[in-house]
Amino acid sequence: MDKTPTTKRKMIEDKEKSKIKLLSPGIAFMTLMKGFICVSILYVPKSFVNGGLWFSILCLCVSCGMTAYCATLLIDSKAATGAANYTALGKHCYGIPGEILVNFAISTS
Question: Does residue 67 lie within any of the structural domains?
């Protein structure tokens, strides 16, 4: 049976997707730490000093926990709905207004 170009491309994409490794929870945690906490400390060191050592550390830890929890909720929502991106997730949950709101939030961030 001959394969069409579209089928060949789909088979190549599936083969490439199977090679991708997912992040373990520990690596995902470190990525969140690096991406949110360390960058904010580097960009705003004076605010870290003004806030005080213990208060700033506490706030960073709370922020990290909230970010990890929200990321987990997004991943669970994506798995439950089968949405491919944030826009599709917003549309699936809230219809057209959700899609517009998600697109607006992404563009303003």
Answer: yes
